[in-house]
Amino acid sequence: MTGLLRLVMIGFAVVAVLLFYGAGSAWRHQNRVSSLFTLLAGALLLALSMLCAAISVGVRGYRVFTAEQVAATIKTEPIGPHRFRATVTLPDSSLHMFDLAGDAVYVEAHVLKWRPIGTFLGLQTAYELDRIAGRYQSLSDEQQRERTVYSLAQHKPFNAYDLAHYWVLRPFVDAEYGSATFIGATTSGSGAGGAGGAGGGGATYEIRVSTTGLLVRPAVTR
Questions:
Q1: SS3 helix, strand, coil % of the chain, rounded to 5?
Q2: Among 17, 38, 58, residue at a domain's last position
Q3: Total number of domains constituting the chain
Q4: Higher pLDDT, 32 or 134
Q5: Looking at the structure, do residues 193 and 98 belong to the same domain, yes or no?
Q6: Pick from 93, 180, 73: nearest CA to 130
Q7: Element (H, E) at 28
Q8: What is the pLDDT, as a whole number, of residue 198?
Q9: Cβ atoms 86, 76 nearer than 8 A
């Protein structure tokens, strides 16, 4: 997704180094004005290179999508009243297990849509799953009972979703928003928002991402 962006970053960095060398040479030859302008040009290109590096690191873990696709498969297993275990399989085949409190499994994601200038640099509309949580059917339970929330995002020094709020990235960003979906954790509450409780067996779902956000479907048995 960011191959061209990395090439641009390296190109800016190489030219910046050459300009710094030229500025030093001009300074030694007493060409103060030429040295100053060359130094400023090198500093600008170095700043642009660092910006490209920040974007490249920030979008690590985000996945490109152009149509509906599976973002994760979640298998739930009741382990007690208002408690269940969720086994999450991501597209890279990695497995993550979470013990959640509630009647439904709730998933959040970040979505980034870039302007044409960002697309020119190799960036495309992308998403990253952010959190998984347990959700109660009853509002009073949601307010009073135990809450469980875990991260699904890949750890990184900084996130492109957060960087998109700063002016340096605003020209590249067309839209950045959060999307969420939930579904009952057991077969007795298989509809979105259905009560799970302690009854019913486990279920397997596909969390899908589309151009309109997250949605959930029962997993297709193959």
A1: 35, 35, 30
A2: 58
A3: 2
A4: 134
A5: yes
A6: 180
A7: helix 3-28
A8: 43
A9: yes
In terms of C-beta density within 10 A (0-12 exposed, 13-18 middle, 19 or more buried), how is residue 186 classed? buried
pLDDT, tens only, 152-199? 987 766 666 666 665 566 677 777 778 899 999 887 544 443 333 445
Q: What is the pLDDT of residue 26?
A: 79
Q: Mean of the pLDDT values across residues 93-113?
A: 91
49 three-class SS: helix
> Domain residues for 191?
63-218
Do 73 and 53 sit in the same domain of this protein? no
Asked whether the whole model's pTM tops 0.70, one would answer no
43, 89: one domain = no
Residue-level pLDDT at 119? 63
d(CA 5, CA 66): 19
Residues 31 and 53 in one domain: yes
* Amino acid in the structure at residue 53: A
The label of the residue with tokens 């590249």 reads 172
The CA-atom distances, in angstroms, between 193 and each of 24, 36, 136, 139, 218 are 67, 64, 8, 11, 14
